[in-house]
Amino acid sequence: MAQFIDAGMLRTELIVEDAIESGDGAGGVSREWIEVATVFAHVEPVRARMRYGADQRQVDITHRITLRHRGDIFRRMRFRRGERVFAIETISDPDETARYLVCETREAGR
Asked: Mean pLDDT throughout 86-100?
């Protein structure tokens, strides 16, 4: 059974970024994020939780981001809106009709 998603809700403009990794000359890896696309999506906060670790407070904020189906979105990528960065954790096609993608994300740096 097809899941109903209101296409009018896809009005938040997000930049899709992919990481380019290269050797740093010292045995490590240097990562640079490049813009690969701009999409319109629905961003829905799911959970915000504070936890303590290493004697400091850490905040976990997760979002569900829904966008039109694309074949070029992968878990190694991230979404960005201004200074906000959303790391993609899971990607699914909710009704397997190739109409929409739903990405579970974790907001970094908040």
From this structure: 94
